[in-house]
Specification:
Elements (H helix, E strand, L loop, with lengths): L4 H24 L6 H26 L1 H31 L7 H29 L3 H18 L11 H9 L12 E3 L5 E3 L1 H25 L5 H12 L2 H8 L2 H4 L3 H22 L20 H33 L3
Antiparallel strand pairs: 1-2
Helix pairs in contact: 2-3, 2-9, 3-7, 3-8, 3-11, 3-12, 4-7, 4-8, 5-11, 11-12
Main location: membrane
Protein name: TerC family protein
InterPro entries: Integral_membrane_TerC (IPR005496), Integral_membrane_TerC_rswitch (IPR022369)
Amino acid sequence: MNVSAWVWIATLVALIAVLAVDLLIIGRRPHEPSMKEAGSWVAFYVGLALVFGIGVWLTAGGQAAGEFYTGWLTEYSLSVDNLFVFVIIMARFAVPRHLQQKVLLIGIVLALVMRGIFIAAGAALITQFSWVFYIFGVFLIYTAFTLVKGEDDGDDFKENILIRWAKRALPLSSDFGDGRFSTISATGKRLFTPMLIVMIAIGTTDLIFALDSIPAIFGITKEPYLVFTANVFALMGLRQLFFLLGGLLERLVYLNVGLAVVLAFIGVKLVLEALHTNSLSFINGGNGFHWAPEIPIWLSLLVILGTLAVATVASLMKTSRDKKRELQTTPR
């Protein structure tokens, strides 16, 4: 793709405008959205992504559109996994229900900023050093392995060193108040609210997830414009999705397994591509392995869609069976 500067500017202005509207609504009226409100917003953002993909198809062709849709779907599924950790964090710190939407929105903005930085760095590295795909591929395969083993499970969320330091060093109140980061006590002393600690936890979690998601999207497309827009659309509407899904999140017991398969597949795809375009002198004399197959984008989309569909259906079937078994064994 040859993306001109004005297309970048127009895209950034449009996306910032959508986020600004979201920010103004939340900033003016923090609340727990109804199912109708959450569903409408999720449908709007998903529809926006689908329309954007059609625009990419009309202006840049089916290959670019396929890369966008595949990248968006991958990032969206990783973002849903991110929600699991957000749920654990907000439960751990007992965030009031009416303030959770504000926490989610700030967390999504932080994720956008961090992913933007990683996208810029990743694009620069790939342009200069094609062997980076070896590192990205191996990292994704390792991440998939940790997901299957459960080492990256949100239930194992532990307070990191930054959170522990903040809780020790900062004067903290016990009340969230109106959701601000600081408040004035009855004695006139300024105290930080637990909201600041929650934001530190959310921010460091966003950083960890960015390390997973950026190599994954670069395994699908090397075009920075598609990488950036796929990430933005995957994060838009995530806070509304949190309230829409509700208890369904806890029922997606095999989501981590599905994501592990997806990440492993993309990791293998990256390694094969690195082998095909190899430039490292100590590997095959700096020549590429032309026997290494290049996985087409349509196959990637089918594998990712199929894997996530199977993981979702299997999760719902298992939780349904478990619930029936529990009801049968519960004494009346």
